[in-house]
Amino acid sequence: MKIATLWHNPAAGDDGQSEKELIALIEQNGFQCRTIDEQDEALKSHLAHSDFLVIAGGDGTVRGAVKKLIMPGFDPVSVPVAVLPAGTANNIGTSLHIRGSQEEIITSWQDASPKPVDVGCGVSAQTSYFFLESLGIGLFPKLMEVMKHKEEEENREDRLDDALETLQQLIPSFPAFHCTIRIHGRTIEGRFLMVAVMNMPMFGPNLYMAPNADPGDGKLNLLLVSESEREHLAGFVAKRLAGIDVPFIGQSYLIDSVYLAWKQADAHVDDEVLPQAQVSQLDISAKPGLLTFLVPE
């Protein structure tokens, strides 16, 4: 019988499922389950005796667990990760085609395929950052800051709609920022609403911003939204609010690495905001296959 180690965030999403209930559900589907406290610094040693790690929670929970596994030295993880999405956006699970009820997802682990997943790395003069979904500058860090100060809606769909409506309100007046981009041996300079380096197709409130991104191809997707594309971006968000789930079509590049330097804008790595006073230039690259996720056949 395979042994699963459970990392659980009971505060994520709407289910409010207890750890005891999750353990019972996992064991009913043919696995032995043990748990680990998210404050436990010995996660790696626990996994030495497990067949895989189950992360039950939202994108922030997945990122928190992965951070303990790979940082500070971007170390490869020895066991596969199985995600039980239970957050608001669940972009990581959706990008990896992990869908269905919790029981359906757990059952799928018996025959799931291990998929290598890359990690993005951003290096400044002072430190290094990692990301699973995206690293971006401009509009989305602003959205994150605004949403922090708003009263959170009770259910998942209302929270997503609230974030989309807030984004729609920000787009018309958000000040463009200057950015210097070096890729493929050339330099691009301009004024942008957002610059994003994406490892997965989705980020933010379930927005398909890089539909061709593959988190296991050893590459990253660079997305540029210039000041002149303000109406195009607003139209895309309006469609999403109307329930039309279409990908964003914009200026994008498949890259191994990129250098970014910017002025008068904050950045983000996944759900963490990086103020401009903290960082304003980064060398960004992919770390191929540091993780393995269990994904449905």
From TrEMBL:
Gene3D superfamilies, per database record: 2.60.200.40, Probable inorganic polyphosphate/atp-NAD kinase, domain 1
Chain ranges of the DAGKc domain: 1-126
Statement: the UniProt record of this protein carries the keyword Magnesium: no
Domain of life: Bacteria
Keywords recorded for this protein, A-Z: ATP-binding, Kinase, Nucleotide-binding, Transferase
GO MF entries: ATP binding; kinase activity
The protein's name in its UniProt record: DAGKc domain-containing protein
Organism in which the protein naturally occurs: Arsenicibacter rosenii
Organism phylogeny: Bacteria, Pseudomonadati, Bacteroidota, Cytophagia, Cytophagales
